[in-house]
């Protein structure tokens, strides 16, 4: 068990079997007296074995085990789906597998706590938006009640309003991505998800979680517009790319060295003036 994380996980599985087969009360006695192991250590090892040898992570267990025992313990509270994505080339808390491997345990712990704090802030934002939707629902219910002859009008459920609003999230997410001039692949990578996940978000097959929204906001996405459909003061409704072609042009322009941009701008201006001249003629 002391040699590697992989051996530690194997020991955890054997401890679980031992606990299941020993009489009640004997397990702790065996662990502490015969194996010379602290009760808390045995508990951590068993939890780690359950976590990393579960069906969701079994195929990625060996990859994650290379991070070492201490880092596996730090990552135990993360979702299985996020850990599987990390092992398959994705990110967790904005970190790739190689970056996690190079970090110290203390640095990893700090990064995870920072990400957790950002997640809580994002959850607070979502809670505030849900409260606003509830207030809007109540106002609209009041208007309906004042114009209907029936006194049995049921109030609209808040979740119905949340669902109604989320129906447009996919289209608004796509428009924000295009506004920023980013491809699906690049946008997904910077938000810590796979391209397929980004595709599903934009098709409204799935809805983004709080961690994704935090990353998207860092890229410049107007999260208020994304959730409610209303632009915030910090984002202009006019600053919207209309299609993939414009997005590709904008992305290419942003990668042009600053000393060459004047040439591109003059060329575009000349072509625009030429088109305008033909139109007037």
UniProtKB/TrEMBL annotation:
Database matches in InterPro entries: Cro/C1-type_HTH, DUF3102, Lambda_DNA-bd_dom_sf
GO molecular function, one term: DNA binding
Domain of life: Eukaryota
Pfam families linked to this entry: DUF3102
CDD domains: HTH_XRE
Alphabetical list of Gene3D superfamilies matching this protein: lambda repressor-like DNA-binding domains
Gene Ontology biological-process entries: regulation of transcription by RNA polymerase II
Name of the molecule in the record: HTH cro/C1-type domain-containing protein
Organism per entry: Rhodnius prolixus (Triatomid bug)
UniProt lineage: Eukaryota, Metazoa, Ecdysozoa, Arthropoda, Hexapoda
């Amino acid at each position: 068990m002391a040699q590697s994380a992989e051996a530690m996980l194997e020991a955890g599985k054997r401890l679980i079997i031992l606990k299941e087969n020993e009489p009640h009360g004997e397990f702790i006695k065996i662990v502490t007296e015969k194996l010379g192991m602290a009760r808390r250590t045995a508990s951590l090892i068993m939890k780690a074995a359950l976590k990393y040898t579960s069906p969701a992570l079994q195929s990625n267990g060996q990859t994650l085990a290379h991070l070492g025992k201490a880092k596996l313990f730090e990552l135990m509270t993360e979702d299985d789906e996020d850990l599987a994505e990390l092992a398959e080339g994705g990110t967790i808390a904005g970190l790739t597998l190689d970056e996690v491997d190079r970090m110290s345990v203390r640095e990893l712990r700090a990064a995870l706590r920072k990400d957790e704090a950002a997640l809580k802030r994002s959850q607070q934002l979502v809670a505030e938006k849900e409260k606003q939707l509830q207030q809007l629902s109540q106002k609209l219910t009041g208007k309906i009640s004042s114009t209907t002859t029936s006194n049995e009008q049921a109030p609209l459920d808040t979740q119905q309003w949340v669902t109604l609003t989320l129906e447009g999230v996919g289209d608004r997410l796509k428009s924000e991505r295009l506004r920023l001039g980013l491809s699906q692949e690049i946008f997904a990578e910077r938000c810590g998800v796979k391209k397929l996940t980004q595709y599903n978000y934009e098709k409204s097959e799935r809805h983004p979680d709080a961690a994704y929204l935090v990353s998207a906001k860092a890229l410049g996405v107007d999260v208020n517009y994304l959730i409610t459909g209303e632009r915030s003061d910090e984002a202009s409704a006019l600053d919207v790319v209309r299609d993939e072609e414009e997005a590709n042009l904008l992305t290419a322009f942003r990668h042009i060295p600053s000393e060459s941009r004047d040439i591109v701008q003059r060329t575009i201006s000349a072509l625009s003036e030429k088109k305008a001249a033909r139109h007037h003629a």
